[in-house]
Amino acid sequence: MNLTNGGGEGDPLYPSSKILPIPAATALAILLNAVFVESASAHVKWFCAYDVAGQPRGLENVLCTDFEILVGLAALALLTGCLTEKTTFGEAIGRALNRVTSLVRTNTELLFRAVCAFFFIALWAIGGVLLTPELTTTWPAISWLQLAIAAGMMSRKTMPFSALGIVGLFVLAVQQYGAFHLADYPVFLGVAAYLALVGLQRDLFGMRPLDVVRWAAAITLMWASVEKWAYPEWSFPLLIEHPAVSWGNDPEFFMRVAGVVEFTLAFALLWTPLVRRLAAILLSAMFISAIFEFGKIDAIGHAPIIVVLLAIIADDTALTIKLRQQLLAPAAYCVALAGFLAIYYGAHTVLFGARIV
Q1: 105: which of 269, 307, 309, 314 fits an S-S bond (Cβ 3.0–4.6 Å)?
Q2: Which helix H or strand E contains 299, and what residues bound it?
């Protein structure tokens, strides 16, 4: 497969590093609108040319004025959600969610098994794919392994073997495409851990199976968000083909917004119960709406993460929430943001020799 850069800083169609200072009210409106924009949840590597080893945008272009405003608004929204959680209104929302999602909650394991079976049967039928559309393979035996993984969903006793098969596919993908590329997909390791733990009826050092896969999903989406800032040009062909999804905004700015929205909601999956349930609702709405825009590939590829989000929405775990945990949310969010940017750009520099600024 020819992996080439889908655009660049010199692309005449789009200004490469145009910084658009924006009023806070305008930024907030765009931030809220972007939650429901399909292109924010389409995985660009499945639809456009890309080059993982290519030069990412320098941090001086990423950390611009409008980016800082968007991050500030996102942190404020996160704090508001946290402070609302233990109010009468927040508790009422939690009870309503418990009622609406009771069927999913009592059948979470069955839902996971059904979706995973569907996913690997689809890969078996398509053929030539390891785990996602761009991770191709010429080994005929892979399709039969995928079918065996799907068959393992029929019984708890065989689920750990299916989990082992998923890990095997992930390792093969790492060998073929590199660890940096597969950093996009730790959710598959989370799904494997969930299946193994449920099959064995165990937890992981006190963490429930659902919590393990929740962390894996959050890490996956936060990493993907950084990629939107580092390589916005990869998505430009999608914005040309689907111009309505950018709401008429400058493509560079739109990709910043999409990344901030996705990172914020992904981080929220790691926070307090109601905040993560509301974040999962918004993320699942983004992923499901993207299916209508991008079709079967998007439906199959995002099936594992959608089922994780549905399970999070249905999770009625009640925890003792301390005020300092609520107040520290913006600080923790900023630390996570800085950490992911540092890890992404640092790892890219080490592996591919790219500059950071």
Answers
A1: 314
A2: helix 296-301
